[in-house]
Amino acid sequence: MLQISKRQTPIAGDVHFDPEPSNVGDAEVLYCSDWDPCLFQADLSQAGEFGAAYLWVKSKEIIYGGEFSLFAVLHEWDEMQATADFRLTDVPWDGMNMLAGSDYRAAAEDAVLVEEAEAWRKWDITALMQEWISGALPNYGMVLRGESGSPSVYFHSSEAVDETNRPYIETELITAAPTRSRTVILGSGFLLQGQSSRETRPEQRFEFTGKGDEPINILDAAGAPVFCDPASVRLYVNGILWPTSHYTLEQGNEGTILTPHHYVPDSPDHRCSVFFRPRDLV
């Protein structure tokens, strides 16, 4: 089985361009349209390994809904200095409100429809994050712009009073899920045969209730790992001898782990019995 672990990284800074020639980097909302972009900065120093990445932004008010595209920014800028004309103090953009193909990459990373107020939307930035992390592209952040049809939306910014509304980057890492096994303790009363020799070896038994394909880790009464002779194993499920093809047997540092398969689908609990000879007596 696979498991997905997620990490959220707050947006380090964002800004939209006010109609007046002044900076509004401390605004609690971001106004975005086909003419008015909004920018996002991301601090990826703690990003770590990832398999997928998304920019999450929450809408606040919809004036005109529509599609918004996200692009990689190609120049350095500062949230407390950027305006429609300047990206840094006295350093202009290549065109007013940013020029496509020069101030930001012409090809969009992703496009998402935004039509509902107070709703989260995500843009896929996996490929862009990989470029940033590898150094193939400097990390100058992202710019969001409305597409055709003149969409116009207010989004919550990184300065939003309610911190739960602030935009963030989410990274996902897909890994193999750790083996989850239930421990079964063998009591001293489970010794079924007496003398120990190659011809007559003590056979042990344990019983448990099976749920799905749940692995069972076998320990002795003292909690020490138990190792068995694989050829001696017999598994009974609900009184029926289970074929060897219907279970797997693994032995490692944790002892013996037995995983029954092919349970009856509509029966959640199964009475199971396992007979085996300890490996150290073989």
| DSSP strand tally | 21
What value does the Rg take, in angstroms?
31 Å
- Output mean pLDDT: 80
Main beta-sheet strand count, sense and barrel state:
6 strands, antiparallel
The SS-based structural class is mainly beta
- Count of discrete structural domains: 2
Gross CATH architecture of the largest domain? Sandwich
Low-confidence stretches: 179-201
What is the third-level CATH name, the topology of the largest domain? Jelly Rolls
Percent of residues in helical segments?
A: under 10%
Number of helices: 1
**Shape descriptor:** elongated
Portion of residues in beta strands equals 35-45%
Order of helices and strands: EEEEEEEEEEHEEEEEEEEEEE
Cα end-to-end separation = 34 Å
CATH class of the largest domain: Mainly Beta
List the main descriptive attributes of the protein structure presented here.
six-stranded antiparallel β-sheet; single chain; Jelly Rolls; mainly beta; five-stranded antiparallel β-sheet; 21 strands; about 280 residues; elongated; Immunoglobulin-like
